[in-house]
Write a structure and sequence with these properties.
There is one protein chain. This protein has 305 residues and is of the alpha/beta class. It has two domains: 3-222 and 296-304, Spore Coat Polysaccharide Biosynthesis Protein SpsA, Chain A (Alpha-Beta Complex), CATH 3.90.550; 224-293. The chain is 52% helix and 18% strand. The chain is built from ten helices and eight strands. It has an eight-stranded mixed β-sheet with strand order 7-5-6-4-1-2-3-8, with helices on both faces. Strand 2 (34-40), helix 2 and strand 3 (61-66) form a beta-alpha-beta unit. Helix 5 packs parallel to helix 8 and helix 9 packs antiparallel against helix 10. The longest helix is centred in the last third of the chain and has 34 residues, at 260-293. It is a multi-pass membrane protein. Keywords: Glycosyltransferase, Membrane, Transferase, Transmembrane, Transmembrane helix. The chain crosses the membrane at residues 228-249, 264-286.
């Protein structure tokens, strides 16, 4: 098997037929032996039924049905587990990752003889608010991550079998696939493309899920949340020492003492800082607890191949 394509799907019945048709058109044009691994992430519509119907017409199609909805990141991990190709493409199932770029990705990795080629988005077709949040996240994450990150690179990429094998060694529950892909090292190249608007259907990555994914990325690949707590704590100590000096000077100078408002503001400030620190620590404790449980990242109900 020369090439595998992994496509995680959740309630994508509106675009599924077009997606598979365009993916097949691109793969057939390459003239290489291929397989398409579609992961049904517990869809509540007829996505799985459509996949099974398409499988009867396309023998290269492999369907991995998860027992329930585990999320995009576990679905990608499940798809990678069931691939056999020498090179593996990962793409979203909403047609915002253009299937015609599979050819460009394959040619690029052949030319560079590297292990990863990521598709970097130069323009995005989403609404302004979503673009704004994503751009802010990428800039922050690039600057605070302990590893070098490629800005505006999502899931869309092609990887060698060596890179896929390395990624499959990761067992963590709070996953961020682009971060893991950068963490493994190896030779990493890019191509640039314009990300179009969603073809049809409803976007599954709403604001809540985007913020959750951003939190997983930052907590997993950066120590800055904890360092921020330390720096703010030190700043609080400095402010406290200055307040003591000011109080002593005021007393000996005979200045009028402040009333209840200054006391209330000081208590509110330090109380808010402490609660923020507890919240950050709680996030880390929760993630540690999830890892200690060692529950499966995903469960497969059935594989149709």
């Amino acid at each position: 098997m020369r090439l595998s394509v992994v496509i995680p799907l959740f309630n994508e019945s509106a675009v599924l037929s077009r997606l598979i048709a365009e993916v097949y058109q691109s793969l057939v044009a390459l003239g290489e032996a291929f397989e398409v691994v579609c992961v049904d992430d517990g869809s509540s519509d007829d996505t799985l039924q459509q996949l099974l119907q398409l499988k009867g017409e396309k023998p290269e199609l492999k369907v991995v049905a998860l027992s329930r909805n585990f999320g995009l990141q576990p679905a990608i991990a499940a798809g990678l587990e069931y691939t056999k190709g020498e090179f593996v493409v990962v793409m979203d199932g909403d047609l915002q990752d253009p299937p015609e770029l599979i050819k460009d990705l394959f040619q690029k990795i052949q030319e560079t003889k590297g292990d990863v080629v990521s598709a970097v988005r130069s323009e995005r077709g989403e609404k302004f608010s979503k673009r704004f949040y994503i751009n802010v996240f990428h800039k922050i994450f690039r600057n605070i991550s302990e590893e070098a990150q490629i800005e505006q690179a999502g899931n869309f990429c092609i990887m060698s079998r060596r890179a896929v094998s390395a990624i499959l060694k990761f067992t963590e529950h709070n996953r961020y696939f682009p971060g893991i892909r950068n963490f493994i090292g190896f030779q990493h190249d890019t191509i640039v493309y314009d990300r179009p608007e969603r073809a049809d259907g409803i976007a599954k990555m709403n604001s809540r899920k985007l913020f959750s994914l951003a939190a997983d990325a930052i907590y997993s690949f950066s120590k800055w949340p904890i360092k921020l707590c330390l720096y703010l704590g030190l700043l609080g100590v400095v402010v406290f020492l200055l307040a003591i000096i000011y109080a002593l000077v005021s007393k000996f100078a005979g200045l009028a003492p402040f009333g209840w408002s200054s006391t209330f503001l000081a208590i509110s400030f330090f109380g808010s800082v402490q609660l923020t620190f507890l919240g950050l620590i709680g996030e880390y404790v929760y993630r540690i607890y999830k890892e200690v449980q060692k529950r499966p990242v995903y469960l497969v109900k059935e594989v149709y191949e």
